Amino acid sequence: MLETVLFYVFGSLAVISALLVITRHNVVHSAMALAVTLLSVAGIFLTLQAEFLAGVQVIVYVGGILVLFVFVIMLISVNRAITERQFNRQWMLATLTASVLIIEFAYVIYQGKDSFRLPPAVAPTIPVAGNTELVGTALYTNYLLPFEIASILLLVAIVGAVMLSKKKTQTED
Amino acid sequence: MVPTHYYLIVGAALFTIGVIGVLTRRNIMIILMSIELMMNAVNINLIAFSSHLQQVTGQVFAIFVITVAAAEAAVGLGIVIAMFKNKETMNINEIDLMKW
Q1: Does a structural domain hold residue A120?
Q2: pTM listed for this prediction
Q3: Is residue A93 in a domain?
Q4: Is the reported ipTM for this assembly greater than 0.90?
Q5: Which residue of A164, A167, A168 is the best one to mutate when testing the B interface, meaning the one whose CB has the most B CBs within 10 A?
Q6: Over 90: is that where the pLDDT of A9 sits?
Q7: Do B43 and A41 count as a contact with CB atoms less than 8 A apart?
Q8: What's the N-to-C CA distance of chain B in angstroms?
Q9: DSSP 8-state secondary structure symbol assigned to residue A168
Q10: Phi, psi for A87 (deg, rounded to 5)
Q11: Which domains does chain B possess?
Q12: Residue A143's domain spans which residues?
């Protein structure tokens, strides 16, 4: 019962603040609405018994990526951007197309909802180990190669970000 | 117990909101935020199925998605800063250096 209530609270919070993200004129307000969305998504993870992912979501998204966003907004002057036109000329067409997309999603999901009923033998069994332990075991055994590739991706991203934002030295020109 | 397709509906709604943001906004920061919204929608779907099938694979892939999102944010914001140094604008309609 509590799980259901929490799902509705976090789900509606996530969707409403996501709408705020794409409609606010001020970028700072959008970033704050994005924080609410990310925290609500962490709450949704909790209702799905994914405690480790909820922690990772809060630490990496809210503590890392969002702070990076706010930092860049701080470096860049937002005053001129607020007074400009915020939406494309084609925004009506884009919204219409995206509405078709959500209708398609809803239709397909509702058509297939009966296939989500699993036989009772497979349905909720309590895992022996904790969630973090299970994720860690899978990450370091079956998915070791993707894990290493992800670490290389992060290294490349660090080098790329530093290269992009550093000052040009005299000798390069 | 919430049915799995409710989670899928939330994911679909977040993804569509992200698509609308990318398609309609002209501020590059908000476009990057909309991309993060879409990544979150994917994560909700992955973890909903992970919980539905009682397998941990979906959560492992959600970690990889979060990794990619972090890398994308770092590089994307680096590009934004480099571009702002050159053009002094966040409006994507004025960034048309490579338009032919």
Answers
A1: no
A2: 0.88
A3: no
A4: yes
A5: A164
A6: yes
A7: yes
A8: 55
A9: P
A10: -115, 155
A11: 4-89 (1.10.287.3510)
A12: 127-166
